[in-house]
Design a protein that fits this description.
Layout: E1 7-10, H1 23-37, H2 39-43, E2 52-56, H3 63-74, E3 78-82, H4 93-108, E4 111-116, H5 119-122, H6 133-148, E5 156-162, E6 181-183, H7 189-200, H8 211-216, H9 223-239, H10 247-268
Parallel strand pairs: 2-5, 2-6, 3-4, 4-5
Antiparallel strand pairs: 1-3
Helix pairs in contact: 1-3, 4-6, 7-9, 9-10
The structure holds adenosine-5'-triphosphate.
The site of adenosine-5'-triphosphate has 19 residues, from helix 3, helix 7 and helix 9.
Family: In the central section; belongs to the AAA ATPase family. In the N-terminal section; belongs to the AAA ATPase family.
Function: Acts as a processive, ATP-dependent zinc metallopeptidase for both cytoplasmic and membrane proteins. Plays a role in the quality control of integral membrane proteins.
Subcellular location: Cell membrane; Membrane
């Protein structure tokens, strides 16, 4: 999902229990939460606290959710921007916004900054047709300047998300910048079952609902698709005047979401 344009130091009440599956990613992220909670414990022994991590994985797999949960667990404010918000900006505007963002973050530290779709500003030089290269480079340079301008003890953790780590400018991946990568994959069957359980919580389901079967019927689905199915199924059942959501409603919802995904893929790859 799209990060709000400049979510500014919002208080978050999402925690790790809202994030299903992603067990390995959670372990890595918990380490970072601990840096935010007790920086001294680490710096006392002379270690340098990392400033950021790159969350790598396909759309809708929970990267934004995990970044938010991190802020929620550490009970620190959450700032977010999307790289795509910087596309088509006038000269100087992108760099100015990056400067503003970090200024506010420093005032509210400890905090988490989340940069969604970082590839939109962080592509290696000369590879982005969407933004004039000069302006994109200004924005990227400002981001690098800001990242170098504070130390790990400041208590600012920057998480950035991408599904194209291969196109990123290597300057972003250097030590002291996004030198850690956390991979966020599409869920396996167990992961999907757990994601269904999270999103079924607010829904009145029939007693005969078979969650394992739902997980079986949704290979390749991301968390966002599963959230979507649960909501669709509730709406379908309500439209039929039912007082609980049944397996058949979920099956209809799955068919709809598959239909939607097929359409989307057609638009993405017009060659087919
Ligand atoms: P994008 O790259 O498109 O921004 P993303 O990886 O950041 O996607 P999110 O925005 O975190 O994905 O996920 C969208 C929604 O899908 C979440 O708000 C949540 O409702 C649901 N979702 C995704 N992954 C999970 C998960 N692992 N557990 C529970 N819910 C999930």
């Amino acid at each position: 999902s799209k990060a709000q344009l400049f979510e500014k130091g919002t208080k978050v009440n999402i925690t790790f229990k809202d994030v299903a599956g992603l067990d390995e990613a959670k372990v890595e992220v918990m380490e970072i939460v601990d840096f935010l909670k007790s920086p001294k414990k680490y710096t006392n022994l002379g270690g340098k606290i990392p400033k950021g991590a790159l969350l790598v994985g396909p759309p809708g797999t929970g990267k934004t959710l995990l970044a938010k949960a991190m802020a929620g667990e550490a009970q620190v404010p959450f700032f977010s921007v999307s790289g795509s918000d910087f596309v088509e900006m006038f000269v100087g505007v992108g760099a100015g916004r990056v400067r503003d963002l970090f200024k506010q973050a420093r005032e509210k530290a400890p905090c988490v900054i989340f940069i969604d779709e970082i590839d939109a500003i962080g592509r290696a030089r000369g590879r982005n047709a969407m933004m004039s290269n000069d302006e994109r480079e200004n924005t990227l340079n400002q981001l690098l300047v800001e990242m170098d301008g504070f130390s790990g003890e400041t208590g600012i953790i920057i998480l950035a998300a991408t599904n194209r780590p291969d196109v990123l400018d290597s300057a972003l991946l250097r030590p002291g910048r996004f030198d850690r990568q956390i991979s966020i994959d599409r869920p396996d069957i167990k992961g999907r079952e757990d994601i269904f359980k999270v999103h079924l919580k607010p829904i009145k389901t029939s007693q005969t609902l078979d969650i394992f079967k739902l997980a079986e019927q949704t290979p390749g689905f991301a968390g966002a698709d599963i959230a979507n199915i649960c909501n669709e199924a509730a709406l379908i059942a309500a439209r039929k005047g039912k007082d609980s959501v049944e397996m058949i409603d979920f099956q209809d919802a799955i068919d709809r979401v598959i239909g939607g995904l097929e359409k989307k893929n057609k638009i993405i790859s017009p060659d087919e």
